[in-house]
Protein: Precorrin-3B C17-methyltransferase
Amino acid sequence: MVVGLGPGNRENFTPEVLAAIKSAQVVVGYHTYLDLIPDLLQDKEKVATPMRGEVERARQAVELAAAGKTVAVVSSGDPGIYGMAGIIIEVAQGRVPVRVIPGITAASAAAASLGAPLMNDFAVISLSDLLTPWETMLKRIEAAAVGDFVMVLYNPRSYGRPDHIKTAREIMLRYKSPETPVGIVRQARRGPEEKIITTLGDMLSHEIDMLTTVIVGNAQTRVEGDFMVTPRGYRL
Ligand code: SAH
Structure:
C-alpha cells in the first residue's frame, strides 16, 4: 500500500489512510514522515530511509511485500503527486499487489489557507530539477504562463539551485502583470503555518523555502480581505 499522510496534521489523514497504516506490519518512509506518526508505529517494523533514497525505499518495500508482509509506504500529501506511488508500481512490476491511497496534497492545503485561488484551471509545477531537466521545466512554466493558468509551485526552492524561483518569476512576468496576486503558504496544515498574500512583482521579498507552496493567480485573481480568490466566472 502506498499511503498519503496529507500536509502534516492528524486531522487531515483520511480514515482510509489511518486504517491502512493500522493494518500494516511494516511501515516504510522518509524518517520525517515516520516522525509525524510515532504513536501509530509502536507495534510495527519501521524502515526509515533518507530523503533521496526513493528507489532503494521502493525496492525494500516491494521485497518485504513479496516476502508476505503487509507493507505501508508513507508519502506526504498525496502519494500520487510527486510521491512514492509511481516508483512503487514501476518497481513492483506486477509481482505484488499495489494499492494507492490518496491524501490531501499541498496544493489543496495551501489553497484552503489562501481562500479560493484554484477555482479555475491551474497547473502544478515542481521547481526541483533533480528528476526533470531544467529546460523542460522552463518550457512548462512558459506554457502555463502563456495559457494564463493559475500556477502552483511545489519545491519552490530547489536543493542547491535557489535561483529557480527567480527564473520562474521572470518567465511569468513576461505574460502576467506584476500586480498578479501570489500566495505563499509555509507548513500548511502542519504548523506553525505562515501565509502571505503578495504580488508577482513583490514575491521575492518574502521567505520561500522547501516547506512552502507558492500559488500565482491568473489575470482574474484578486484579493478579498485576507483571501485570494480566482473567480469561477459566475455573474454576481
Ligand atoms: N506528495 C506531496 C508533495 C511532495 S513535493 C503532496 O502531495 O503534497 C514537496 C513539496 O510539497 C514541498 O517542497 C512544498 O512545496 C510542498 N508541501 C508539502 N507539504 C506542504 C505543507 N504542509 N505546506 C506547504 N507546502 C507543502
User: Anything to note?
Assistant: The chain is about 30% helix and 25% strand. The domain at 2-101 is CATH 3.40.1010.10 (Cobalt-precorrin-4 Transmethylase; domain 1).
